Amino acid sequence: MNVYRRIVALFALVFVAIGIALLVVTAMRGGGVLGFLLGGLFVALGVGRLTLLRKGAAR
Amino acid sequence: MPSRRRRQVELERVLGTPALFATAYGNVGSSIYYALGLTAVFALGLTPLVFVVAGLIFACTAATYAEGTVRYPEAGGSASFARHGFNELVSFGAGWAQLLVYVVTVATSAFFVPHYLSVFWEPLNTNPWDVVGGAVVILALVTLNVFGVQEAARLSIVLAVLDFATQLLLVAIGLVAVFSPEILLDNVHWGTAPTWGNLAVAVPVAMLAYTGVETVSNLAEEVRDPVRSVPNAYKLVAAAVFAIYFTLPLVALSALPVRLVDGELTTTLALPPEEGGYANDPILGVVENLGLSGLVLDGMQVYVGVLAATILFIAVNAGIIGASRITYSMATYRQLPEIFRRLHPRFKTPWLALLLFAGILPIAVIVPGDVTFVGTLYSFGATLSFTIAHAALVRLRMLPRDEPSLFRAKPNVRAGGIDWPLFALFGGLFTGISFAVILVQNPLTRWVGLGWLASGLVGYLVYRRRVVHEPLRATVKAPAAFGPALALEYRRLLVPVLPGQASDDALDVAASLAAERGAHIVAVTVLEVPLEQGLLAELPVESEALAHRELDEARAIGDSYGVDVIPRLLRARSAGQAIVEEATRRESEIIVIGAPRKQFGRRRAVFGDTVDYVLKNAPCRVMVTATEAAA
Fold first, then answer.
1. How far apart are CA B251 and CA A21, in angstroms?
2. Residue B23 CB contacts under 8 Å (≥ 6 apart), including other chains
3. How far B247 CA sits from the closest chain A CA (Å)?
4. Would an 8 Å CB–CB cutoff place A34 in contact with chain B?
5. Separation CA B489–CA B512 (nearest Å)
6. CA dist list (Å): B115 to B53, B135, B248, B273, B493
7. B248 near B32, Cβ under 8 Å?
8. Is the minimum CB–CB distance between B164 and chain A shorter than 8 Å?
9. Distances (CA, A) of B228 to B67, B406, B523, B530, B532
């Protein structure tokens, strides 16, 4: 895995971590559409990028 | 000998993707330290949303710059794209707008350095001490640059990584300690706080957060493999920007919510320090309101204050270098008088360009001490420059091309035989609208900005008509050497490298020439791609690895002479043609090429096909060296 792919993977994990943090904090503070929406989007972005990275590596 | 040299430097492949990314993020990441407060002045509770919208426009702009820079890997950014897409007059407009951006970037970054150092002495956060402090920073760095100080690339990279990590840490602490979706929704009062007019201005002002998108373009000449490194670096910058710029405002507006102050809905993020706000040091404001206390808070304030001041200090220096580079480039294309290319007889630096565009003008911008004016003036220059860049890319896609495109940014839609770049169309539309909004909404910025453009255009017209005697739209280049630079006859040497002793000998000759004159060498190796494959097709790993080894070796040879070697890997159908094109594009003054002598059948040829082609077609002098054994 070259340096570029490692950094991309790191960023994807950062997005997932931010998303999970948003979801957990929102749930702990009584919910709210905005928090869940943002959290979900960040997780989806991170997971999506990781999936693309894996598909790219498989090719 | 070469293999020993190679071992010494094989880990020093500078200006690959990671180095480009770190340098660019060092610039882009510095702007959050002022852009957050400036944007909040206009956007109030909608600041996070405005950063998302500006971020999407930034992504489009980054895609345009990535494709444009791969096509034309040379300093100049939008001015260079406009030259190739339109003509010299449009190129001048883009370059002049970009110069305004550099002037304001230097001013803004310098103005905020004292604000963050106010953790040590509070008066630095307010007028007149911030103006004095900012002017001192500018004067100190201009003086250092006139004396010829070099940018400490490694230090910049370390600081960029440290900066990103610190910003992530603030986001993490903020999400846990203060993030509140409820407060964020309560912050929004549609049409009232912010008003629709202020919301419209907020988007172009938020683009201030993305200062530095040109950095990668300006470094493109020193990138080893621009086809891969440039787009990848832009993608990484976009990802880093999304991670911070989409989250930090959420934390900031949760910690410093919109509330009623003296009968007006506002946030302390948007208020000046005299009114108890943090507009001058927004990130310190966030730190203070994260719920930390005692020694942890004190330590965090000092750490963030010092880090921010250091990052901004380096951003000032990058802006100064950018201003001098674009001035030099504009003078090279006879857009500005040659006096701006003239080097100081002793220090060999463009002292007049540094003094005027990176010293006097930025100080004039900060003297009024009005941060809002500075922010909107930046937006004026940046939105105009970006709009021209997008338009130029669309135009370039419409023009017929002889050679296949090495990189095409996405998304595109095909119609009428043209791949229309949706990112450039969308980006150009919105940066154009943003430019119009700034023109309409801010009278002071409108007149100062238009005055800047008008004075530049009048100067260009007079210079072209009276001095250059060339049409406004014609591309004309200044002679290669003049003044003290005349002594540096071969300042730009190009050496094609191939495995074998012939290339090593050529490099030895070139390095000794360059060492005498303090010049640099561009070492070029060409990966010839068969016609049946695309230019970006995966080639055997060994051939790429061999090419990289040869470039490492070239750097090692240069290193042993104390000469800078810029390695460049090219993909092309024909090595000779690629070498000639690279020499033309770089305005090389001499090509030094090693000649493996070959024998074809009964006919004895002196040189191979590549050397023959270079000798016949090179735009400059060619020196052919041969190995002793062959001679």
1. 12
2. B153, B156, B157, B160, B215, B216, B219
3. 8
4. yes
5. 14
6. 28, 13, 20, 10, 45
7. yes
8. no
9. 11, 9, 18, 19, 21
Beta strands in B285-339 (DSSP E): none
For residue B248, what is the nearest residue in chain A, using CA coordinates?
A: A18
Q: Average of pLDDT values for B272-281? A: 91
Contacts of B18 in chain A (CB under 8 A): 3-4, 7
Q: Provide the residue type at B382 as one letter.
A: A
Q: What would the pLDDT profile of B16-25 be if each residue is shown by its tens digit?
A: 788 788 878 8
Our CA-based measurement puts residue A11 at a distance from the nearest CA of chain B, in whole angstroms, of 7
Coil vs helix vs strand at B101: helix
Measured between alpha carbons, how far apart are the two ends of chain A, in Å?
A: 13
Q: Which of B179, B184, B186, B241 to mutate to test the interface with A (most CBs of A within 10 A)?
A: B179
Q: Which residue has the higher pLDDT, B394 or B369?
A: B394
**CB pairs under 8 A, 24+ apart, for B425-429?**
B425/B390, B425/B394, B426/B60, B427/B57, B427/B60, B427/B61, B427/B63, B427/B64, B427/B386, B427/B390, B428/B386, B428/B387, B428/B390, B428/B391, B428/B394
Strand (E) or helix (H) holding B96: helix B88-117
Tell me how far apart the terminal alpha carbons of chain B are, to the nearest angstrom. Answer: 21
What ipTM, to 2 d.p.? 0.86
Residue B374 burial by Cβ neighbours in a 10 Å radius (0-12, 13-18, 19+): buried
The candidate with the shortest Cα–Cα distance to B17, out of A29, A4, A42, is A4
B235: nearest CA partner in chain A: A8
Structural contact between residues B520 and B559, judged by C-beta atoms closer than 8 angstroms: no
- Cα separation, B154 vs B465, whole angstroms: 45
Alpha helices for B471-540 (secondary structure H): 501-517
**How many helices (H) and strands (E) are present in chain A, helices listed first?**
2, 0
Structure tokens at B27: 């610039």
Which of helix, strand or coil describes residue B97?
Answer: helix
Write down the pTM of the prediction.
0.80
Q: In what order do the strands lie in the sheet with B565-572?
A: B565-572, B520-528, B492-496, B590-594, B621-625
Tracing tokens 């948007």 back to the chain, one arrives at B270
Among B386, B376, B382, smallest CA distance to B428 is for B386
- DSSP type of residue B279: T
Q: At residue B373, does pLDDT exceed 80?
A: yes
B349 compared with B254, residue with greater pLDDT: B254
Q: For residue B568, which phi and psi values (nearest 5 degrees)? A: -140, 120
All residues of chain A having their beta carbon less than 8 Å from the beta carbon of residue B168 are 14
